[in-house]
Model the fold of this input.
Amino acid sequence: MSFRLLVSLFLLGVGLGSPWLVRDWLDVRGVAGQETPGRPVQGGVSFSDRWKGLPRRGSESPAAKPEPAAVSSARPPYPLASRAQRIMQGFLPSSPGGSGEKVPFVNSGGGAATPRTRLITMAAGERLRGDLADLGFELGDAAYLRVFKEESELELWLKSGPEPHYALFKIFRLSHCAGEPGPKLREGDGQAPEGFYFASSGSLRPETRHHLGIDLGFPNAYDADRGYSGSDLMIHGGSFAAGAFALAPQDMEEVYTLVEAALEGGQEFLRINLFPFRMTDKRMDQVWESNPSCLDFWTNLKEGYDFFENVRQPPMAEVVSGRYAFRMEE
Done:
């Protein structure tokens, strides 16, 4: 009888653990950072000729841009062990020196740090200090994020103290990006959003089923005006973009740490600009000639893209007559 009981318990354990085993097997074989191929070029009117005739906001020349520290693509080993550790942390007390409360496995709510995330951000902060110092930055400096779907890249920009211009600190490789170039229209369409978003300290997600997260605040005023729908869209850690954009866990730790430090250091909110691709005139020529259905939307996004390229300050984006309008932040 005892032998049958042991066999039954063993089979029950294998059945309960199989979702994690299968997911990890797929993770190892997944291809990170897939890029969406560009659209074919056809004959037509040059976008750059039309674009150069449009009025520009901000005539300042761009500030010098330092070389980024690195393009990171780290991937932690043993993802199954990592998930198992998180599950155990949900049942066991925190590490010595902590408050002793349990660490929830599910989302603990916006911005509320947990003993686990305090340890993560402390370790990530120590890793980053050397790179920050080399470029004249420190933890707590103002931050700004730009994401490019087609290139599968996330840029993290920082601004030191009273310095008016942002400078590129680091480029992170996305491990996965949901969908393809084009806006998110409705819940469940498999698309990641595009546009101009911002996050406050309440947008931080220290405990999710992914590895840390920053809520994008979708839908914003522009999306809501058009009836677009979606929820729980984030930049988060992991290898699958269930919440819009995924970074390797170690990369997400660094982004999360710098964003959290910036918000705690006095930055009121973090601007997050999401683009389908790098909106250079050359790339927009190709888009103009292929004439996709979202051409007008992308032309509007390019105004915000050029704003930052010109003045190295993220624009304040507002919705005027159903379009984004941009101006300098006071």
Residues 2-29 form the longest helix (28 residues). Residues 47-57+114-327 form a domain with the L,D-transpeptidase catalytic domain-like fold (CATH 2.40.440.10).
